[in-house]
Amino acid sequence: MEKFSKPTIITIPKIADPRGNLSVIQQNDTVPFPIARVFYLYDVPADSSRGGHAHHRDNQFMIAMAGSFDVVLDNGREKRRYTLNRPYQGLLIPPGFWRTMDNFSAGSVCVVITDNPYDESDYIREYEEFVATSDPETHPF
Ligand code: TYD
Predict the structure, then answer these.
(1) pLDDT per residue over 89-104, tens digit each?
(2) pLDDT at 5
(3) Which of 25, 67, 111, 126 could make an SS bond with 40 (beta carbons 3.0 to 4.6 A apart)?
């Protein structure tokens, strides 16, 4: 599989219709990887922070399917904050980026599509370990 090292906002195709819009995410197309897993966060309290980890291998595509929230990415040297607030836009998060999600609006739903089944050994959960092992040169913004 091709390697993607830059976080990217991807526009999801929208089929606009007065009866209601339709958007579709296809593997190896809308998202540049095969889809293995979908998980979602909901009923998130307004002051809650989620994430707080990086991944060794997992590519993730994150969408505010309803409402809005912010994603802070960190490559071990610099941080960027992204606001997700459209069901037809998502943030591609390659491995090697520490991520934190906050500022959830009431009723927001955060959907994450990934290219691997859940595997706890793919997580880096200690920030000090992440900074010590991160490589900002190969994970630029
Ligand atoms: P975690 O990935 O830390 O949540 P977030 O980054 O969204 O704040 O996962 C929280 C818990 O859920 C943790 O105990 C692992 C479990 N989990 C699964 O069992 N399968 C999954 O696919 C995911 C994403 C998490």
Answers:
(1) 999 999 999 999 999 9
(2) 73
(3) 111
- 37, 118 in Cβ contact below 8 A? yes
This prediction has a pTM of 0.96
Residues with CB under 6 A from ligand 1: 37, 39, 41, 50-51, 53, 118
Catalytic residues: 53
Nearest 10 degrees: Cα torsion 17, 21, 26, 32: 110
Residue 1 has pLDDT above 80, yes or no: no
Which one, of 106, 101, 122, 125, lies nearest residue 36 by Cα? 122
Sort 22 into a burial class: Cβ within 10 Å, 0-12 / 13-18 / 19+.
Answer: exposed
11: its two tokens: 């526009």
